[in-house]
Amino acid sequence: MGLLSDPNRRRALISLLTRLNSPICVVCYMAGVAWFMGLAFEPFTLRTYMSENAMGSTMVEERFPAGERALTTGREFSAHKKKAGGMPVDWLVKTMQARGLEVFTQRFSRKLPFPDENKERYMVKGTNVYGILRAPRAPRTEALVLSAPCTPGDSNNQAVGLLLGLAQYFRNQIYWAKDIIFLVNEHDLIGMQAWLEGYHHTNTTGMDWSPLQGRGGSIQAALSLELSSDVITSMDLVLEGLNGQLPNLDLANLFYAFCQKIGVLCTIQGKLQRNDWDSVSGYSHSVQTMMLMVMKQASGRPWGDHGLFLRYHIEAASIKGINSFRQYKTDVTTIGRLLEGMYRKLNNLLEPFGLLLTDYMLILTLLLHLTVVQALDLWVQLATPPPRTEDGITDKEQVRHTYYFRVLSVLTPLVISHLTGVALYTLPIQFQEMAVEQFPVSETEAVVLTAIGVYTAGLALPHNTHRLLSGEGTEQGWRVLKLVAVLYLAVLLGCTALINFSLGFILALTLVPVAAFVTPHVPKVLSAFILVILSPACTLLFSVFFFQELQELPVSFQEGWLLYLSVISQGILDHFLYGSLVYPLIALLVYPCWLLFWNILFWK
Amino acid sequence: MAEQKFSLSVCVCVCVCVCVCMCVCVWAVRAMMCGCGRDDFQEELVIRPLHSGDIYASFQFRTVWETDFMRGNKVSHYRLFPKSLGQVISKFSVRELHISFTQGYWRTMQWGQPFQPSPPGAELWVWFQDSVTDVDGTWKELTNVLSGIFCASLNFIDSTNTVQPSASFKPLGIGNETDHRFLRYATLPREIVCTENLTPWKKLLPCGSKAGLAVLLKSEKLFHSSFHSQAVHIRPVCQDWQCKTTSWELRQTLNVVFDLHNSAQGKREWSLFKMFSRTLTEACPLASSSKIYIDITDNPQGEQFEVSPATPLLSQAVVLGDRRTFSVYDLTQQITFGTVRSLNLLIRWKSSDMLRPLLHAERYVAGYGLQTGEIHTLMYNNHPYRSFPVLLLDSVPWYLRLYIHTLTVTSKGKDNKPSYIHYQPSKDRLRPHLLEMLVQLPPNSVTEVTVQFERALLKWTEYTPDPNHGFYVGSSVISSLVPSIVAMDTNSTRERPLFSSFFPCKEESSYFVRVYTEPLLVNLPTPDFSMPYNVICLTCTVVAVGYGSLYNLLTRSFQIEEPSPGLAKRIANIIRKMRGVPPL
Sorted alphabetically, which keywords does the UniProt record give (chain A) (predicted)? Predict the structure, then answer.
């Protein structure tokens, strides 16, 4: 530290830092990206391993025999579903009771903020039916959940059939140490949300539900089952939950271990794992898988019915049966045995999983390091004393004046850009009725188009903010503003990454270069173009196309645009229905932050 | 010859002497035993087919001894009463002792009320005699001794989980002292009950598990059940109707519920052999009475189930407010065992239905996240028109910091003000919260008691070896006098003489019930004890400290400040200035 206390050496160090600023930034950025790509390279990553001893071996003898009967039950369920035109509540209650469960129902209703065009629903009313298998000699302190959604149409009947079959089989076993809750939820995530809120007696989203009559203590793990065919070719495990939360890795590893043991093909992100990691195609395959996961996680939406459990600190995953054109088929009995094995293992679990995934934070540290270096550089530039004026009398006054001016020049854009953010958050929902009356659009379109309109209107701000300022912007002014903006970005992205790493990473990847290069002195038109391209909305648009590309379902621009609109509406709905944080985060924080950089570019 | 004669007479003399001595001894022993009083042992088994189709078997073994353990009276001769417990009573001046070990949760909604309610895990409550000066110290010693006797972890009872309820646990035996300073109550919700607890419990019986009903207590079957609870109750009772002297009563009870679904493979049929893998061949020879009761109330004409062999003996009793009819099998009568010299009761079901118990309760933790939460206790009064008061006792560990100002009691959407509240706040690491209140439950309603809490952050050595499993909070206890079903029965005039049925008769109008809620499993904020996380934390700390000082030094501007000159130098400079010479 003596090195730094010495003013001369310190000055040298500072000048070194200022000079090397750009190379350091570039190196950090490249290193961050390279490290991220390295994650997909198998030798760099740890082999999947079990950290929980109780989950260690798959030494369970699975005996579930009744796959055919489960399918029959599924067909019966389908017939009753058709007859009832929705959830066959009475039939389910009776069937579950016949299997020796304690059966309860829960009614719920929800009016969406605007119609959901993807799932065609607006006023939602439904009933959840669940049966509790009480573990013998257990004091109702712990429970496991197996759920299957009751979806309209012909899908998912087999899942309900298998659920009931497993209930019957599990009921006759004596080794259960935890209660097992068999849940059939209506209206997929909305029903699940109602059930979970009822179970934990919270109300975060203003939904109406009737209180639950029976409970089984704290839920330790949950699986959601989706199965729409009598035979399947592979099982897909879906992990991404609300706000990009993931269940513990042990749950996924347990699933893979059982798949291997029983001989079921299992896929990650719909892709089979390959062993040729050293070849180019193998590597690109694993990069694709990883990117898919990153995109899904960044979207912050629950990708299966399990997604809402994670908020309550319950490890959960969805298991989807996929029937493609492969030769090798697996029947329902085998899936039943797979689930039996998993539940017996979960039953042995003495404590909930405790492992965290924190490896990725280093990547983000590298990316954000860039913004910190920038901030340091700006601070040093600001801190170098301005050349002294000749007459010492006006000096003080001028300093005070510049100080006020500086604060004002920073505060005004900050406040105005945040107000724009608030407008972006509130206006689309507030003005949907007015918009529907004025223009020939549906409510959903009105909401999305208002959002895009407000977003675009924000781009005109720099010209207007200056009218509010008393004088011309100075060289000092934009530096202070940029310093504030860069630090703001660093804190914002750091916090985002703690909640949702993928979202933080994608935002950092696009916003950090912006933070690095923007000054009022770069060529205006080109920079403005780059800035718009790297803005959150465009990032979302590219992500939509990229995601389709990764899924090997490329779309034309027209379709992509429609998809983009629906993604925005889904994002807003996710926020209002389940409390997803992505929309408010983008609208209230990230977008205003980006506007600050936009302001700097047009600084006068 | 004379010598021989002499020796013979000596022999006779010795023999006579020995005989006399022995007679005297026997007489003396008899006399001492009489001094200690008579003792008496009874055993019985009640089998009740439950509405859910399960089967409930309740054993009771009762030893009554006319003796006095009070006031330091030395008792050293034991016959039927177990010596180990007798010594405990004298040494620790115990007036009443109730201990129960339960594995499983009594499902009131499916099974109705049990004969002896008990919470999951271990429960111990003791009334000490008023001669005890250091109650806490005696309690501590007593729990350690009992821990040895019953092979259980009762030594984990300490001040952090012991409370002194002011109203919920009154003495069940005779005695006027009800000052709750002499009462201690503790539960261990995490205690697991298994064979090692059953064996010492069986050894307390006079016949052990050699003869009588105790033959049925085979652990491989008893622990293959839905519910298992064993208890020991010791209390002073009246010796006779005049109640001038006291006897000591030891009741050992064992309740078990067998799951019809699991073990019978769908056949609705039960027998003693299927339940216990034994049949009965004799009563305990030391028992003055040995009986099996089978509850056939729900089965007056035999349409629900049939029992074989049939018995002509019937008995009626009001149990838990309901008039029940029992078939009785007296094991002291040889005829009970029939020609095969063994009794294997058989019950076959025909149909079943659900019931609604008048009072039941449940409890859960609401909310998410690891900072705060809310305990909800729901109490259901299913009586169609009568309201009744209940006493709610909650003992919550200190690491859940209750916010007592958030306590709300609501029934039917309205605020229900408790008429009595006794709250003792916790002290960190010393004692738990104690909350007792008297609430009136309106008819046909659900009363909800909620209180918010904050989860404390423990010191890192205070976490259990499996901290992520969560921490247990014991059951809350609801004690109440519930209006009985008999009194509810408006058609009661049918069977009874008219003169007896105008005013509801007192002992039948209400009955005492204790209901335990389920224990809670609450997660506390837990540090990640895994190695990688610790490494990350450490590295981050080092980086933060290093980076902080670096940043600090880089951004702070340094200025060289001249030290102010001394007084002499200043004066010298003034003089120099006046002289027009440059200063020093």
Answer: Disulfide bond, Endoplasmic reticulum, Glycoprotein, GPI-anchor biosynthesis, Membrane, Transmembrane, Transmembrane helix
pTM: 0.86
Q: Side-chain half-sphere of A341: how many Cα atoms within 13 Å?
A: 24
Q: Judging by DSSP bridges, how do beta strands B520-522 and B388-396 pair with one another?
A: unpaired
pLDDT for B264 equals 56
Q: Which residues pair with A116 in a beta bridge?
A: A121
Examine the predicted complex and report whether its ipTM is higher than 0.95.
no
The phi, psi pair for A316, rounded to 5°, reads -150, 155
Strand, coil or helix: what is B316? strand
User: Which residues sit opposite B62 in a β-bridge?
Assistant: B42, B251
Q: How far is B519 from chain A (nearest CA, A)?
A: 7
In DSSP terms, which residues pair with B229 in a beta bridge? B102, B255
Please give the average per-residue pLDDT across B262-283, as a whole number. 77
N residues, chain A: 604
Q: Whole-angstrom Cα distance, residue B449 to residue B379?
A: 8
Q: How far apart are CA B525 and CA B471, in angstroms?
A: 11
Tokens for A37? 């790509």
Q: Residue B211 and residue B384: Cα distance in Å, rounded?
A: 47
Strands A265-268 vs A234-238: parallel, antiparallel or unpaired = parallel
Contacts of B464 in chain A (CB under 8 A): none
Q: Does A311 reach chain B within 8 Å, measured CB to CB?
A: yes
Contact assignment for A202 to B367 by CB distance below 8 Å = yes
CA distance A355 to chain B (A): 7
Q: Say if CB A512 and CB A594 are below 8 A apart.
A: no
Question: In which element (H, E) is residue B424 found?
Answer: strand B420-424
CB A339 within 8 A of CB A182: no
B489 Cβ neighbours under 8 A, 6+ residues apart: none
Which chain B residue's Cα is nearest to A308?
A: B368
- Distances in whole angstroms, Cα of residue A426 to Cα of each of A419, A535, B487: 10, 20, 62
Using alpha carbons, list the distances in angstroms from residue A205 to A109, A200, A202, A428.
Answer: 12, 14, 9, 18
Q: How far is A148 from chain B (nearest CA, A)?
A: 23
**H or E segment to which residue B550 belongs:** helix B531-555
Q: Is the N-terminal amide bond of B309 cis, ω within 30° of 0?
A: yes
Confidence grade of residue A368 (pLDDT, cut at 50, 70, 90): confident
- Rounded to whole angstroms, how far apart are CA atoms A29 and A509? 8
Q: With an 8 Å Cβ cutoff, is A351 touching chain B?
A: yes
- As a whole number of angstroms, the distance between CA B286 and CA B284 comes to 5
Of B299, B359, B275, B208, nearest to B58 by C-alpha is: B275
Contact A351, B467 (CB under 8 A): yes
B105 touches A: beta carbon within 8 Å:
yes
Residue A476 has pLDDT above 60, yes or no: yes
Q: Which of A9, A16, A103, A141 to mutate to test the interface with B (most CBs of B within 10 A)?
A: A141
Q: Report whether pLDDT(B30) > 50.
A: no
Closest among B259, B256, B248 to B40, alpha carbons compared: B248
* Radius of gyration of chain B from its Cα atoms, rounded to whole angstroms: 34
Of residues B28, B44, B30, B87, the one with CA closest to residue B248: B87
Q: What pLDDT, in 10s, does the model give residues A4-32?
A: 566 677 777 777 777 787 788 888 888 88
The strand pairing partners of B43, in sequence order, are B61, B290
Answer for the pair B376, A201: CB distance below 8 angstroms, yes or no: yes
- A266-325 per-position pLDDT tens digit: 887 777 777 776 778 888 888 888 888 889 888 888 988 998 998 888 889 999 988 888
DSSP A140-175: S-EEEEEEEEE-STTTTHHHHHHHHHHHHHHHT-S-
CB pairs under 8 A between A and B: 124
- CB contact A46 to B (< 8 Å): no
Asked if residue B493 has pLDDT above 50, the reply is: no
Closest to A140 (Cβ–Cβ): which among B105, B469, B550? B105
